[in-house]
Model the fold of this input.
Amino acid sequence: MTDQDKESRMRISMLMDSDLDGRDNPRLIDTMLTDAELKATWARYNLMGDVMRSAGNGLLADMDFAARVSLAITQEPTVLAPKALRPAISARSSIVTLGLAASLALVAVIVGKSVNDHSDVFQTAANSQAGAGQVASVAPDQVDNQADSQFNDYLVMHNETAYMAGSAAMLPYVRVVGSRPNN
Amino acid sequence: MTAMVEVIDEELVRRVQKGEKKAFDLLVLKYQNRIIQLINRYVRDPHEAQDIAQETFIKAYRAMASFRGDSAFYTWIYRIAINTAKNHIAARSRRPTDDEIEMEVAEQFEGENSLRDQETPEGILLSEELGRTIQLALDELPGELRTAITLREMDGLSYDEIAEVMECPVGTVRSRIFRAREAIDKKIKSLTG
Done:
């Protein structure tokens, strides 16, 4: 047995006991898969532990067992790696994410538009109140009603859009605000 | 006892899932005896236990794509083995005529020679001899080597824990376990061919 063989066998012993540095595992496994003697060493080392644990009374695999299974496996179709399934899952989740993002963008546009509209109303209301002493024909209640009406329209629209966007958690708040009686 | 992560299993499973069939061989070599012993506790028939174990490994290979590593590989394959054994027992109990025939034939044998012994394949007899040889080799080991390998294999202690028990450096434990395995290996190599 060469020093290299001895070194490899010691590393197999360590590998069995999870004592080998993880970075060395792949290389040693590659060696075991190509070197029949090292593969047999792996089998015998495992056999020792099995015999010891069963106190020599346990049933052992017959000598051809692993070879029979190996032959049967070669006739099986190669298994699909789970990683192959992951892109499909992530593609699906990407579509959902994009959908949500698009919905949120739509809500943002509507909110932005609505705020602009309201700023006109508030500006009008402010101007009206500022000149209330001069123009008695514009009643403050009328301005408030107009603003409330537009704000409620916005809330209803938001309610519908937010539901489509999946942000249902906001709905109770929207309903409360939308249905709050005028003070 | 410290639960040691079976890093080797994870690596082998990863390889099989990538399509490297040969990596499955190392998993079979590692678990074949444990699976057979487990199944034999259910079916109480060495010959049938070998067949069911073979079926277990093939089932495991086919299901490997669905194995996500949520549990350890050995837990997963033990579950497959138990289910396969139970299915065989259920199928066997649905064949009462077979059992009756077997009983009648068995009754024809007298003394210590049972039907099972007569039908035991050569491989199983060799396995029994292997078991005896390993046990003898273990008995012949120097005390410190036998203690180290026993603490590792039978009690499942880690190298650090063995070092603590035996009051020696971890490197010494590593060396003692390797030397013990090599000594036993010399005795069984000729038997395993």
